[in-house]
């Protein structure tokens, strides 16, 4: 079965075009994808590949407009997001997903501008598709997180099979800007918190802040997920960095902060900048010993990770993190 035609974009003629591209069999399969993500998890539970084709989970792209020049692209059954920011000359694609199906072809139907590509960070669901392009901007920290993408079996893909497996890695530094033509995107390097390679992308004119996986409305993963035994991890440093990044971003947005929106990569977008305050509160509550520690993760996918028995959810107001319980308890209540 050929799934290359399975492209959907709501609120646009692209939706109709995509549907017409799909074969009858594909359309029928599409009707079953509503619970595809859960289906994948259920199948992994049995330690076998799901009956449903992986392309329908990892590479079923949907796009809609956030504003006149900003597209949101979702995949993973609508739980994960990529952004496409259009300027007068270029469009900037933030992340490349798992690299399943023809994301590049999908994006080039959304914009007629030359597409530049940047990774919010070097994790498999954000950068495994880089090889569909000849050049990708990313953080220097990609080297530390590289095993999470490149180890055999790290994801449902074959990196060597992409058109440009040796694509150019263009290292971005704190304060760099990307001029898309009438639209400037500022790049900030995050202090390592969720991972070692995060970049924040700031668009002052559109008042949007792309946070990668560092802040989201469900939970930020704060345990080492680099698959690199040499990656540095210190729990106090990570929590302090999570807080310091939030303070820096808040200061950058200034008094106008409530007019801004956070655009995270998972579970909901756009979300209120209030989450930055709550993440700051969460860090403080850990040290104060007042954050709520929950042993039940309530996340079916993470619960299947071999590391899950070591994890807990730490909650404060509407935000939370997943972290190794033994690690977070080293600092819990130490500044009460
Ligand atoms: Fe991540």
Count of the domains: 1
Distance between the termini: 60 Å
The CATH class, by name, is: Alpha Beta
Annotated CATH architecture: 4-Layer Sandwich
Strand content: 15-25%
Overall pLDDT score: 85
**C-alpha Rg (nearest Å):** 20 Å
The assigned structural class equals alpha/beta
| CATH topology title | Metallo-beta-lactamase, Chain A
User: Could you give the count of β-strands?
Assistant: 18
How many helical elements? 10
Using the alpha-carbon principal axes, give the shape.
globular
CATH homologous superfamily annotation: Ribonuclease Z/Hydroxyacylglutathione hydrolase-like
Heterogens: fe (ii) ion
Write structural notes for this entry.
The chain has a single domain, classed as Ribonuclease Z/Hydroxyacylglutathione hydrolase-like (Metallo-beta-lactamase, Chain A, 4-Layer Sandwich). It is built from ten helices and 18 strands. The protein has helices spanning 13-21, 24-30, 36-45, 55-58, 103-110, 124-127, 142-150, 235-253, 274-288, 325-328, and strands spanning 8-9, 62-67, 70-75, 80-86, 90-94, 114-118, 135-139, 168-172, 177-179, 184-189, 199-203, 208-212, 220-221, 261-264, 271-272, 292-294, 311-316, 319-324. Strands 1-2-3-4-5-6 form a six-stranded mixed sheet. It has a six-stranded mixed sheet with strand order 9-10-11-12-14-15, covered by helices on one side. Helix 7 links the parallel strand 7 (135-139) and strand 8 (168-172). Helix 8 runs antiparallel to helix 9. The radius of gyration is 20 Å and the shape is globular. Fe (ii) ion (FE2) binds at residues 121, 123, 194-195, 213. Fe (ii) ion (FE2) is lined by residues 121, 123, 194-195, 213.
């Amino acid at each position: 079965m050929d799934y290359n035609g399975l492209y959907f974009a709501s609120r646009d003629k692209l939706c109709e075009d995509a549907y017409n591209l799909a074969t009858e069999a594909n359309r029928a399969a599409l009707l079953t994808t509503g619970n595809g993500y859960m289906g994948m998890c259920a199948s992994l539970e049995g330690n076998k590949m799901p009956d449903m084709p992986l392309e329908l989970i990892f590479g079923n792209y949907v796009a809609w407009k956030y504003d006149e020049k900003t597209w949101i692209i979702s995949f993973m059954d609508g739980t994960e997001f990529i952004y496409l920011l259009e300027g007068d000359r270029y469009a900037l694609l933030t992340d490349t997903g798992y690299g399943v199906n023809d994301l590049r072809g999908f994006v080039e139907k959304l914009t007629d501008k030359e597409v530049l590509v940047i990774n919010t960070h070097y994790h498999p669901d954000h950068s495994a598709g880089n090889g569909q392009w000849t050049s990708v901007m990313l953080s220097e920290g990609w080297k530390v997180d590289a095993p999470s993408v490149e180890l055999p079996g790290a994801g449902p893909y074959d990196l060597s099979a992409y058109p440009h497996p040796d694509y150019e890695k263009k290292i971005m530094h704190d304060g760099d800007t990307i001029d898309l033509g009438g639209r400037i995107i500022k790049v900030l390097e995050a202090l390592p918190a969720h991972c070692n390679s995060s970049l924040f992308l700031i668009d002052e004119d559109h008042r949007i802040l792309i946070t990668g996986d560092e802040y989201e409305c469900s939970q930020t993963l704060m345990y080492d997920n680099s698959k690199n035994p040499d990656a540095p991890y210190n729990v106090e440093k990570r929590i302090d960095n999570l807080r310091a990044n939030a303070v820096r971003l808040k200061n950058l947005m200034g008094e106008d902060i409530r007019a801004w929106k956070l655009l995270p990569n998972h579970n909901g977008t756009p979300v209120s900048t209030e989450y930055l305050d709550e993440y700051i509160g969460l860090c403080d509550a850990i040290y104060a010993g007042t954050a709520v520690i929950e042993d039940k993760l309530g996340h079916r996918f993470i619960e299947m990770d071999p590391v899950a028995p070591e994890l807990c959810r730490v909650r404060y107001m509407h935000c939370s993190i997943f972290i190794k319980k033994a690690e977070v308890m080293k600092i819990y209540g130490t500044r009460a």
